[in-house]
Amino acid sequence: MFQVSLQRVARYEREEVEEGLARLLESLGGMERYVKPGERVLIKPNLLSAKPPEAAVTTHPEVLRAVILAVQHAGGIALVGDSPGVGSGRRVAERSGMMRVIEETGAEFVPFEESATVGGTGTFREFELARPYLEADRLINLPKLKTHEMMTMTCCVKNLFGAVVGTRKAAWHLKAGADKELFARMLIEVYMLREPDLNIVDAVVAMEGDGPGSGDPCQVGLLMAGDNAVAVDQVAAEVAGIPKKLLYLESAARNMGLPGSRREEIAVAGADPATALARPLRLPHLSDVQFGLPRFLKNRLRHQFTSRPEVAPEKCELCGICVKACPPDAIRVQGGRLRFDYQRCIRCFCCRELCPHAALTLKDGFLLRLMKKSGRSL
């Protein structure tokens, strides 16, 4: 059985978070089970973009503080690192409040800038992952529970995509992002190259709606933890109330027979995931009903069965972030406004994910609109 622990933590008050973390880890054997004196422990939060803590885009700095202190109390050397979707890791850490915590606790910030090539063991033959991520003695995964327009939910396994440095993320979106099932498999193969020793989920305030970067904060009041990232994600999805058929990562994990992918092999300690929330998290805009279709039909009917990004001119400041972030180079600025090449667009929605002004909307294809209007269960 894989153990997953849930503890109620209502607010990001320092003492409350530290006490909640101690209770959370108690049923798992405490931090001392995962960290030995003198070990270099990489803590990998979610540093998606330069947003303040209250936006719920990044892991909250008080959760990071509590984990750093627990690692140090166990005798470990705390390192903090990630590669954001856009901008420098240091700037995102400063804007999100995490750099202040890193400096106050005496931890070391290790931006993911240099990569090393690692041989793959499945569909993909090799990956380039951040050296600090590969070289640390221990890895603690510290994601934020959020909805995600491409994968429906982002939590433990998806958070590890941050080990892919900078613009190499765009290359993976271009290589695998046009097919959600293939992209999910790629994410799992990244996870399998370096499975975290411990996963701790910040779900005190989660994100719902158009996550992971433009959704709305949602009070959940939980911390979650477990050794197995796949198992923790299973329980997180249960807490969020997300239907299994919309969980691409979890479905891929079951198809691959990964440990922790079956709910019956997971034991939950603490709060009941089925009653943790009064209502399910509000899901992202349904942008794709291609799952289950043969590949040749997906290619032919892609524009009709999917949503496409469009600009809201009154919000767009032509900052160019979406242009730089677009993996297939399908966006340009022309005539004082954004222009999209929808033949090249792979519907990865990196543009929406990273837009700091929430200036990109979605327009449904004809068949997708028709299915939504008919009320067909998807």
Automatic annotation (TrEMBL):
It comes from the Bacteria. GO terms for molecular function: 4 iron, 4 sulfur cluster binding; metal ion binding. Keywords: 4Fe-4S, Iron, Iron-sulfur, Metal-binding. Gene3D superfamilies: 3.30.70.20. It holds the Pfam family Fer4_10. Residues 307-336, 337-365 form the 4Fe-4S ferredoxin-type domain. This is DUF362 domain-containing protein. The lineage of its organism: Bacteria, Pseudomonadati, Thermodesulfobacteriota, Desulfuromonadia, Geobacterales.
